[in-house]
Every structure is written in C-alpha cells, then in structure tokens.
Task: structure prediction
Amino acid sequence: MRLIKVEYAYKIYKNGTTAVADLSVSIDKGEFVFVIGSTGSGKSTFIKMLYREEKPTKGKVIVGGIDVAKLRNSKVYKLRRKLGVVFQDFKLLPKLTVYENVAFALETLGLPNSEIRPKVLRAIEAVGLKEKTRNLPSQLSGGEQQRVSIARALVNDPKLLICDEPTGNLDPETSKEIVALLDKINKELGTTIIMATHDKELVNRMKKRVLVIEDGVLARDDQKGSYKVHESVKNS
Amino acid sequence: MKALRILKRSIRDSFKSVFRNFSLSMASIVCTTITLILVAISLFLTYNVRQVTTNLESELTIVVYFKGDVTEKQEEEIQNDMKTNPKIESAKLKTKEEWKAEMKKSSEEFALIDDLGVNPLLDSLIVKVQDVKDLNEVAEKLKKYEYVESARYGEGMVENIISIFDVLSYGAIGIVGALVLVTAFLIGNTIKLTIFSRKTEIEIMRLVGASNTAIKIPFVFEGFILGILGSIIPVVLSIYGYVFLYDQTGGYISTKIITLATPFPLVFWVSAFLVIIGSVVGMFGSWRAVRKYLKI
Result:
C-alpha cells in the first residue's frame, strides 16, 4: 500500500531559490528509505514537505491520504498526529524528565493519564531507556537523548517516522546503534521510516532503498541494496 | 472530556511556567503593577473631578426676581415659557410668602419681618438648566422680560470653575485610556519575551500534533495569571490608600466645595476594573505573542 505519493513537486522560496524541482516519488507502507544529498541539495526541503514544515509551491505531496499542499496552517496537527519526526538536535524540553518529554506528546493531545502511562512506558522500553525514565536530558548521552526523541515520535503509534539527520550529532558507534534501533522499529512495528543522512558508509551497510537528491531533483532512486553497486561503478 | 483534560493540563502548565520562568514572570508582574497603579490614580482623579463638577452643576440655579407689581398670571406665563424651553430642567415659582417663611425658619432675627406689616420680599422663579453652559444665555433671556427685576446665577466665577473641571476630567479620561494602551503594550512585550524563550516548546507541541488552540491555551492562561498577580498590589493600594486619604482629609480638599467621593463602593469598582484590565490585557498580550509562532 502506498503511504507517500509525491507528484511533480516544486518548492520555490520567496527569494527565488528553487529548492525542489519536478520531484516525483512514491513510498509504500513498511519501507525503510534513506534520503541522501549534500547540503543545499534540497534534501531537507523534501523532508520538511513531508511533515508540512514547508508547503510545496506546485505539485502534489500526499502523505497518509492528506494532501499537504492543501493543508491549512491551522489543520497541520491532523497530519502531525499520523507521523513522528526525529531531528538531529533531538529537540527535547530540557526541564522535563525522560518520562515527561515522551508523555508531553500525548498530553497535548488530551489523552487520559490512564492511557498515557502504559503507552509512554512501552515507548521508553522500546528504545531501551527503561532505567532512565526519571533523568533529565542533561543527564543523558547524545545517543540516549536521541532515543528519547525516537520514543516521543513513536509513542502515538505513527505509521510513518521521519528522521532528519538523526545521527548528525552522534559518533559512529552511537550512530550505528540508533540506525539499528530504527531498523528494529521498522521490522517489528512495521513503521515506515524515511531517514535523511550524510553518512554514506551507513547507507551502504544497511542495503535499503536510497533516494539521491541533487540540485533539487531526484537524481537516483535505487531499490534495496543496489545503491552501493551504483556508487562503486561511478567511483571506478 | 478531552477538552476538559487539555484545559486542566493547560492550567497546571501555566502555573508551572510562571514559576519556572520566574525572572521573566516577575518582569511582567512588576510592569503590570506599575502601570495599574497609575491607572488607579487616574481613575480616582477622574471620578472625583467628575463628581465635584456634577455636584457643582446641580447646585447652580438662576434666581429670577419679579418686579413688585407683577400679577400671578404674568408669573405663570414666564414659568410656562421656561418649562417649554428644552434647555431648562425645571422652573419653580417661589412666592415672597415662601421666602419669608424660609427666612423666619432659618433665624429668629428674621421674626421681625412680621413687624413691617407688608412683605418687602419679591416673588421669584428658580430655574435650573440642563447644561450649565446655557446658564448665561438663559439668564440674559430672562432679563428681557418686562416684569423681571433681575436674573442672577453667580456670573463669572461659575464659568471659570466649570471650564477648569471640564478640562481636568477629559484630561484624566485621556490619561486612563493612554495608560491602558501602554499597559497592553508593555505586558504584551514582556510576555513576548517569555514566549520567545519557549519557542522550542511551541515547535515541539506543533510537531507532536497539538492543535493551535491547545498550544495557545496555556500561554493565554499564563498571561491571565500574570495580569492577576500584577493587579494585587494596585488593588490593595487603591483600597487602603484611598480610604486612608479620605480619613486623613475628612473628605475635603482645601474648601468645602471640593469634596472627595466616599470610598465605598468606589474602591471596589476601581479594584474590579484594575483586575479586569490586568487579566484581559495579559491574556490578549500572550495570545498575540504566541500567534506569531504558530504561523509557518
């Protein structure tokens, strides 16, 4: 089943910069897709369009049946409730504990406490932080903080998890752990994962579908595991 | 149920936030307190000036004395003329007999008046105008009647006092209005600072799918709390301060004409007004400030 459908999407900023041009791609439910591209390639804009941080100037971006281009600012929450977003800088609230940070997402949705508690504990357990529920973000390592933000993104059982350079601030070893965690989530929960990254070594190792964005256009769309081959051909 | 839970959590979070961001909250509170004290002073001033003016105005009458040979019919004619004039509030006849009775009552010395045999006093008409500004015009008109001996109202001094108080009371209303605007601006700005420091929080709330309303409520409620906290000192000061002033002066300032308004229930009205201004302006300020961060 198709979860994301992007058709001839354009994003032209007010200053005239074309960040994304004529981009079409579709992603099925349960896929794990890497999005790679250098800084300024339009990769970030593409990712941001998926959760309606940016609105496409032209074309269609349909996520989980919602047409992002037509979504009014006041209705953005309807899309956001269907997906989770993980950032490079974690975006945790520094004054809340691990538990509170994860529960925050459900509290703003107005769920009763009796429902919040088990969901939060399950999400924290899923990312392996059961022992640290009462810690503040400042008492955690970078990798642990990223796990908290993944737990927060997952707590509402989204069908889609968007990760914008989730390992950008982490050392290689921790990055591996985080990607392994995402892989596990993808396999066990069936959550569709879209992950933007710079880390080519990691992409090669994981053998997943890879979207390459260059100068705002989709340069390549390599199915599972074929990316490495292409890359070596290009390099030789 | 869901909305209630969101509201309950919003209220809890706004209280938490007031204490967590204590220094910024203090800034908002202090700035509200100062401006509201100024508003309170202007309110008392306006109210008292207005009251003195109204008191003065209600005392102002034109006393018309008829000539001695006037007939009753002629008196009534003038009275009817006045009554049909839209500028006139009332026109009452007061005969010389009534004057005499009043004089005798006021002091025993006037008992001698009976010894005169004839009543030396004159019949009169007491005219009250709707607007004191018409005093002069009406008096001049009355003087033109054939049977009118004189028409007096304390010319000169009255006009001066009234115009001074008019300026004072309009000026004070202007000051209150300006202060309310300044308060709104200051509270709004301080809250903007508070909210700016919590941009990430709003961002995360949006990311996890909180609706705009759910995001706004805690901030608006926080503005409400800050406004209420900021109005505590002004309220206490106006109640105790005004009562103290009233007790100290005995209700009079310099002369017996200029009286202070009685403190109750005036102080309660002023207090209610201060609390309302503080809270509404606080809520409005936050609402405007947070709205800025909800636009993408």
Remarks:
- DSSP finds nine helices and six strands in chain B.
